[in-house]
Amino acid sequence: MTTPPNKGTLYLVPTPLDFGCDTSVPIADVLPQATLRVASGLTHWITENAKSTRAFLKRVSEFAPLGLALQDMQITELPREVHKKGDHLGEFDAKPLLALVLKGQDIGLVSEAGMPAVADPGSSVVMAAHQLGIRVAPLVGPVSLLLALAASGLNGQNFAFVGYLPQDSAARLQRIRELEMLVMKTGQTQLFIETPYRNKALWEALLKGLQPNTRVARASGLTLQNMDVQCYAVRDWRQSNGIGDTPTVFAIGR
Amino acid sequence: MTTPPNKGTLYLVPTPLDFGCDTSVPIADVLPQATLRVASGLTHWITENAKSTRAFLKRVSEFAPLGLALQDMQITELPREVHKKGDHLGEFDAKPLLALVLKGQDIGLVSEAGMPAVADPGSSVVMAAHQLGIRVAPLVGPVSLLLALAASGLNGQNFAFVGYLPQDSAARLQRIRELEMLVMKTGQTQLFIETPYRNKALWEALLKGLQPNTRVARASGLTLQNMDVQCYAVRDWRQSNGIGDTPTVFAIGR
Question: N or C: which terminus of chain A has fewer CB atoms within 10 Å of its end residue's CB?
Fold first, then answer.
């Protein structure tokens, strides 16, 4: 093991993709035992949102008793700026959040859904851990981007995730065409996401703005009962394929 | 549910990242219950390698009885060309492999390790399923690229996976500098992999070819006992940080 002596470990703890809204899928169906075991034993957390972390821990406790009563857990929220602007620009110094880890305390990093620090805040904490010589251990769980990519049938040997597209319709169209150009030139699949209530606007812009032969995938409700993944060339998508407001990952490729 | 009537489902079944070599980590520690349950019930498989799939199913059977004795399973290997050249170029028509699925048979797609169709063959099968109107259901399990990305602390809001770098040292150096330029211009984290016995050559080329401020991450032995993830600016990596020949994901970012 490479754990530096006397320091704790930063565990990256993935959470279910249901945002706590569809708890009909048991947590052990999407998180393997090692993840549940580690999560149940941790007493210190860094999170996007303390409330959803408490709800997550309540679900974990049905699988394994928690190391500490919920109200005694130390749950620290990342500051608002980190949520909004992302935290990979080096402006936020997360080292103070890891003070106890230097003294031997293990700590968990979580986001609202899926893997922390992937399409979600958290990378500043991980970066700080490396700078402090703290061991970083990512745990297995659902990652919507990769489930979507695999299920799209698009090129999985060369792909990119580019976050959100612009909201302004002209800027969005321009970005869509830029991404399509990249696909055509390099074959690199381009993945992106949208705030669910804007799914419809994005979807219509895609079908209107892309070339007829470009393939478009959309993956909704991943790991949930209503999971739906489809991928066709633009010309083969039908008007009838409406889109709802469940969290969706979009991808274009050739 | 969106399953078309009378057709089976194509399940994308992730496997442990140990390539069957380090079975000291129990399979239920990296695959959640839904994945194990579905995998144990499937009797038809499409795979990179039938031998490793049988070994995988033997491990699954310790968790849940298989739907059929191993020797009675129908396990179809993808053709060699698909392994070598990848199967996202549309040259290989996988539709015949799904003939039984059109008649109602469920089928599993697996690769040697991790998620099929991500940095591994399989996308031709998924594409064929979409074309045939067959439901595609990705299951949760370990994906080395995303574990590595999260644990690197590099930008997880904008990233790309670009596969393997060239083997020729001059071409490799050129590619490394191209990727670094992309990082500097766009902030997009660049992930790549190497055949393990070439880890050392790639690692030396990275430390030699990149700018001192560029951050480099390497993630080895993900989910295994000897897991080791580190990320520093090039100037902070030390000669003493040698690299072994365990499967490693590399990333550069700023």
Answer: N
